[in-house]
Amino acid sequence: MKKKILILVPLFLIFVIAMAPASLLENLTAEQKRVSLSGFSGSLWSGEINSVSTNGLSFENVEYSLGLFALLTAKASVDLNIKKGLVKGDFNVTAGSDYMQSLKINDANLRLSAAEIEDYVKLMGAKLKGNISTSSLNLELANNRPKNADGTLRWRNAAVNFAGKEWPLGNFAVDISTNERTKAIVGKIRDNKNQLGIDGEVSLLPNGMVEFSGSISTEIDKSLYTALSMFKNGNAKNGRLPIKFTQKIFR
Asked: Which secondary structure element, helix H or strand E, spans residue 25, and what is its range?
């Protein structure tokens, strides 16, 4: 009899949690200011949030589903599907008790306007256009900074507007991985036949610096070639101009 009770009690508690109204989440998060949630439907286990705001970002119609196995191992695992907002798409988030310092974003398939990243990266007055998306992106964050990453990032219909002039750039695809030796997150630019004829790698270094090392074609738009020549890393050879630049984006 005691064994049956030991089995039935945890199952009953799980059932109660699963059937509890989602509105309880609003009460549980009311005291903290990092994330603002409003408008709940469904249960604690699975439902939809009308509005989510955090760090200046806002999302609407966010579907969620909690992972039972992760909860049993003292972790939180949530599947999210954002239908409306600055960022749209689906992904999974997992975190332990130290979620304020470390969390993982898994299998992220997201879409956003390139203009949305201007508030997070110093672009010296340049404006970005086009659409950015990720495919099967896995990202581990530590103290709000990327620690590990792998997946694919695309920038379609890319364009840059600077000093009143706009340069169409075409389409880009970047394969992302983490260098286990240097701990740098590296993005390898594919040969996409974009207007720059660009080739090379973008690296996010552990010290918060972003570094690009590669080359561009010498046959691109002359005004664009002149602008990019400010970052040349040697003389042009065989129709290619070597380019290198660094910029700090994390303190």
From this structure: helix 23-28
Q: What is the DSSP string of 198-228?
A: -EEEEEE-TTSEEEEEEEEETTS-HHHHHHH
pLDDT of residue 7: 36
User: Which residue from 167, 170, 155, 153 is spatially nearest to 228, judged by alpha carbons?
Assistant: 167
For residue 6, what pLDDT is reported?
35
DSSP secondary structure letter of residue 233: -
Instruction: State the distance between the two ends of the chain, measured CA to CA, in whole angstroms.
Output: 60
Q: Do the Cβ atoms of 160 and 169 come closer than 8 Å? A: yes
Distance CA 128, CA 157 (A): 10
In the chain, which residues have pLDDT < 50? 1-22, 24, 28, 30-31
pTM of the entire structure? 0.76
